[in-house]
Design brief:
24% helix
Length: 133
């Protein structure tokens, strides 16, 4: 088994020894749960689910590209939301990043995420090895 840590200059790395944003294991990229959290908490608090999801899918794209793939290689996304009634906003953002064979998806409502202003968190799996689409 081969494990490679992937770092993207577009996605802030977590503090050392907490977790990895992305690991590639034998041609499969596992992208950790991404949020729209950036350097400005006030801006995040003003974002709705669509805006947060769009920013998150952009981070996922950056991680997958840094791993050597494209969004067409993403085979699964797991989406966590704090209010499932706003899921259409998340799906609208998702449609902007995927075409053709859409990845399989799971959508789960959770009681809370890492901070009150975080409404969406998304993780992804991409097959970027031999035989990837």
């Amino acid at each position: 088994m081969t494990i490679r840590r992937v770092i993207s200059p577009d996605v802030p790395e977590p503090p050392p020894e907490r977790w990895s944003n992305c690991l590639v294991v034998d041609g499969v990229a596992y992208v950790a749960g991404m949020t729209a959290r950036g350097t400005d908490p006030a801006a995040l608090a003003k974002m709705d689910e669509y805006e947060q999801a769009k920013q998150i899918f952009g981070k996922i794209r950056s991680m997958v590209e840094a791993a050597g793939g494209t969004m067409a290689d993403v085979v699964k996304v797991i989406i966590y939301v704090t209010d499932i009634r706003n899921n259409t906003k998340v799906w609208a953002a998702r449609r902007e990043f995927f075409t053709g064979n859409f990845p399989v998806s799971t959508l789960v409502q959770v009681a809370a995420l890492a901070a009150p202003e975080i409404l969406v968190e998304i993780e992804a799996i991409a097959h970027i090895g031999k035989g990837a689409r």
